[in-house]
Amino acid sequence: MAPSPGPRDDWPRCRRSQIPSTPRLPHPGRLNDDDVHLAQALADSAALALMHWSTEPARADDVITRVQSVIASKATLEIAKGMIAQYADTTIAEAAQLLTAYARQRRLRLTDTVQALVTRDMNPAAVVEAKPRT
Predict the structure, then answer these.
(1) Nearest partner of 45 among 9, 77, 8, 12, judged by Cα
(2) What SS3 state is found at 55?
(3) Residue 1 burial (CB < 10 Å; 0-12/13-18/19+)?
(4) Is residue 22 part of a domain?
(5) Of 8, 34, 87, 103, which cross-links 124 as Cys (Cβ 3.0–4.6 Å)?
(6) How many domains does the structure of the chain reveal?
(7) How many Cβ atoms sit within 10 Å of the Cβ of residue 134?
(8) What distance in Å separates the CA atoms of residue 129 and residue 126, rounded to the nearest whole number?
(9) Considering the entire predicted model, what is its pTM?
(10) Are 130 and 99 in contact (CB under 8 A)?
(11) What are 43-90's pLDDT values in tens digits?
(12) Distance between CA atoms of 35 and 110, rounded to whole angstroms?
């Protein structure tokens, strides 16, 4: 009987030049503000998806629908933060605080608030006037 192959003996052989590498940052260890914001948005999307993940087995279509829904919600939030930041001439972080304060003071869901902003059912001035409590 022939000896069984070792753990890597059955792997396909390829030259190092054929192995895709990860993209390299222009300055390792440093990200500009836009890249940091994008990375945070992606991390937030992943965290939301994991928080709402069902332990029940799901069909592939269900998983895709959930992921698309989380991404759409996060995109709507980012658009609303951008709208508030532009309107109030402030940073994205301060706009997020204003949105959160507005929703909390009125006991509204943040998702409902940002949806109303993005669909133009709410004026950004209403959110800007709701200063966060300190």
Answers:
(1) 77
(2) coil
(3) exposed
(4) no
(5) 87
(6) 1
(7) 3
(8) 5
(9) 0.54
(10) no
(11) 777 777 766 666 665 676 777 888 888 888 888 899 999 999 999 999
(12) 24
Distance between CA atoms of residues 109 and 125, nearest Å: 18
Flag whether 107 is in a domain: yes
* Residue 28 buriedness (CB in 10 A; 0-12 / 13-18 / 19+): exposed
Asked whether residue 18 is domain-assigned, the answer is: no
Instruction: Name residues whose C-beta falls within 8 Å of residue 101's C-beta, 6 or more positions apart in sequence.
Output: 130, 131, 132, 133
Task: Residue 111: give the domain boundaries.
Answer: 34-51+59-129
- Asked whether the CA dihedral 8, 13, 15, 18 is positive or negative, the reply is negative
The answer to whether position 66 is within a domain reads: yes
- DSSP-derived secondary structure for 73-109: HHHHHHHHHHHHHHHHT--HHHHHHHHHHHHHHTT--
- Cβ contact 131:100 at 8 Å: no
Contacts (Cβ under 8 Å, ≥6 apart) of 110: 77, 99, 100, 103
What is the chain's Cα-based Rg?
22
Name residue 23's amino acid: P
